[in-house]
């Protein structure tokens, strides 16, 4: 295959995450080009295409999927539409990057993975943070023994958009709520860092009648083997935080901006060990670009995805357990 070839992307929808982050990331990457965007509102598709320098605009998702020149699609649609459009894209022969969480539940996620396997197309979940090289650095520091044995992890991700009327995150039947929107980051990061799956989940949620009874805040405990506890809180109705701490027997790692990485937020993190605290300087890279290039290498060069779609199913199982725990006010064994 031509080594200069770039993967050609179509975007299903003009969601904010697509316009602000994913499309610019793909456009700045090495191996990708965005050639088309679709919206159910054709005028909106044209406006977005003009704004971002995209050649083709479609007035329906079906029309974009019928375009044989497109190799892959990015799906930033509301959560309840992920399954349908992933399967339809797979049947159209498109590789798929689907926004997190992959589905509404693990059963749906498994169906999506199977559909993509049957169609022989790649499927990846858009959890961009884990493509940033600092997470490899964090894992290397832990493996080196510098902070001793990991005793616990604490992760936070919160913001306040409670006054955003009509937000899709506030629709219960659409898979709204803080756990699915941002709790997925904390759960994924814990699984990534520890390299294992949790054995139980206990979560307390704040379900808001003003917001269709979705969990506007969720605080949880995940139990891992080795008596390691991971605590986290996720909120769409609290002050902004975005942090990760790995606590070891002999030190700790602090990541002040754990899931958002840009020149303004900063990407560096800190290691405390032996009484000294040092700053680890991290390359300023676009993790959305790295996410796109990982997919492109899999499609164009036959390399394995860094994160197989089965990982998304595993994360979905934990998310389901957390939501069930919050709703039933009980500890859920996984």
From TrEMBL:
Residues forming coiled coils: none
Keyword RNA-binding in annotation: no
GO MF entries: nucleotide binding; oxidoreductase activity
UniProt keywords, alphabetically: Oxidoreductase
Residue ranges annotated for the Gfo/Idh/MocA-like oxidoreductase N-terminal domain, each copy included: 7-124
Domain GFO/IDH/MocA-like oxidoreductase: 135-254
InterPro entries associated with the record: Gfo/Idh/MocA-like_OxRdtase_N, Gfo/Idh/MocA_domain, GFO_IDH_MocA-like_dom, NAD(P)-bd_dom_sf
UniProt xrefs under SUPFAM superfamilies: Glyceraldehyde-3-phosphate dehydrogenase-like, C-terminal domain, NAD(P)-binding Rossmann-fold domains
Pfam families associated with the record: GFO_IDH_MocA (PF01408), GFO_IDH_MocA_C3 (PF22725)
Keyword Oxidoreductase applies: yes
Superkingdom in the source lineage: Bacteria
Similarity section: Belongs to the Gfo/Idh/MocA family.
Protein name: Dehydrogenase
Organism: Paenibacillus amylolyticus
């Amino acid at each position: 295959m031509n080594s200069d070839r770039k993967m050609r992307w179509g975007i299903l929808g003009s969601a904010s995450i697509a316009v602000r982050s994913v499309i610019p990331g793909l456009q700045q990457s090495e191996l990708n080009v965005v050639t088309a965007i679709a919206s159910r509102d054709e005028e909106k598709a044209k406006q977005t295409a003009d704004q971002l320098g995209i050649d083709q605009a479609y007035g329906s998702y079906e029309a974009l999927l019928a375009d044989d020149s497109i190799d892959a699609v990015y799906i930033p649609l509301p959560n309840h539409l992920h399954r349908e459009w992933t399967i339809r894209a797979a049947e159209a022969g498109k590789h798929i990057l689907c926004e997190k969480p992959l589905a509404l539940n693990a059963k749906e996620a498994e169906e999506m993975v199977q559909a993509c396997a049957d169609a022989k197309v790649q499927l990846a979940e858009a959890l961009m943070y884990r493509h940033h090289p600092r997470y490899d650095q964090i894992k290397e520091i832990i493996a080196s023994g510098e902070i001793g044995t990991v005793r616990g992890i604490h992760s936070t991700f919160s913001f306040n958009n409670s006054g955003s009327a009509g937000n899709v995150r506030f629709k219960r039947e659409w898979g709204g709520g803080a756990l699915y929107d941002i709790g997925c980051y904390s759960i994924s990061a814990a699984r990534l860092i520890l390299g294992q799956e949790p054995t139980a989940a206990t979560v307390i949620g704040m379900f808001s009648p003003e917001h269709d009874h979705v969990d506007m805040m969720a605080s949880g405990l995940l139990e891992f083997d080795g008596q390691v506890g991971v605590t986290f809180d996720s909120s769409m109705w609290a002050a902004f935080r975005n942090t990760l701490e790995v606590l070891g027997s002999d030190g700790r790692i602090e990541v002040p901006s754990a899931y958002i990485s840009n020149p303004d937020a900063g990407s560096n993190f800190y290691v405390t060990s032996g009484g000294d605290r040092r700053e680890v300087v991290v390359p300023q890279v676009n993790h959305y670009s790295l996410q796109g290039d990982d997919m492109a290498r899999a499609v164009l060069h036959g390399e394995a995805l860094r994160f197989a779609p089965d990982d998304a199913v595993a994360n979905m199982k934990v998310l389901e357990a957390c939501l069930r725990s919050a709703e039933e006010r009980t500890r859920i064994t996984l």
